[in-house]
Amino acid sequence: MKKYKKNFVMKKLLHITCICTINLQLDSYFDLEARKGKRGGAWMHNWQAHCTDAEGKEQLASAFVVCNFPASTKTNPSLLRHDDVVTLFHEMGHAIHHMLSTVNENEVSGVNGVEWDAVEFPSQFLENFAYEPKVLKLFAQHHETDETIPNAMIEKLVKSKNFLSASGMLRQLEFSIFDFKLHTKAYKGEEVQNLLDAIRKDTALIQTPSYNKFQNGFAHIFAGGYSAGYYSYKWAEVLSADAFFAVVDEGIFDSPTAKIS
């Protein structure tokens, strides 16, 4: 990370080629800073999957990681909030998952060959490390004093993550159940709102205002590829938690479970 520190904070597009211990060469591209006219949000684009073509030639994996972090200036680098760090870890989980594939068939290589139940597993797995002191202390420093993030601040970050987490889970369950039931038949007009209202009677602790039309902008299930599959976020969270704590119990960096065999 230190090797590329200046590139991360100063360049609009960063290209890194990595040669791994499993003899794979990976190409990753990073477009991290916000700018006028750029699409909002953050995502990983699986530009090319690892595969072997009809002539037996190996095609290397490559991916883009796109975010909208605060733009750097002539006087200041791009300074990230902890939420931004979590976002970067999340998208890197997708990218690493995609680029480390050794499958030779393009259609099922990388993220292409994963059941939707587990597609968010690697991304949420990596997110967890953004709250680990051993990991944060590798790079989380004050940009002027180089002071490493103190333990007290890390504890506050963890507490803030867990605050109202049960309410957050209820919200995700609401989205997942709505997504499932919406795809069981052709709901029309007010039927969609009535369906969501009925689900909220079981999931919402606070009554949602009538003017809220969340369902009209639920892009994940319309244009995001999660139709009848939004539940995978919560299911992947369960899977990733099991894997994460297996690694943490083994000391994180010395974990034999985490090593590539």
Structure description:
The protein is an alpha+beta fold. It folds into 2 domains: 2-162, Orthogonal Bundle (Neurolysin, domain 3), CATH 1.10.1370.40; 165-230. Helix content is 37%, strand content 13%. The protein has a 4-stranded mixed β-sheet, with helices on one face. The protein has a two-stranded antiparallel sheet with strand order 4-5. α3 packs across α8.
**Overall mean confidence score, pLDDT:** 87
Range of strand content = 5-15%
Q: In CATH's first tier, which class of the largest domain applies?
A: Mainly Alpha
Rg (C-alpha, Å)? 21 Å
Q: What's the total count of β strands?
A: 6
What's the quick description here?
With 261 residues, the protein is an alpha+beta fold.
Features:
alpha+beta; two-stranded antiparallel sheet; four-stranded mixed β-sheet; Neurolysin, domain 3; single chain; 8 helices; 261 residues
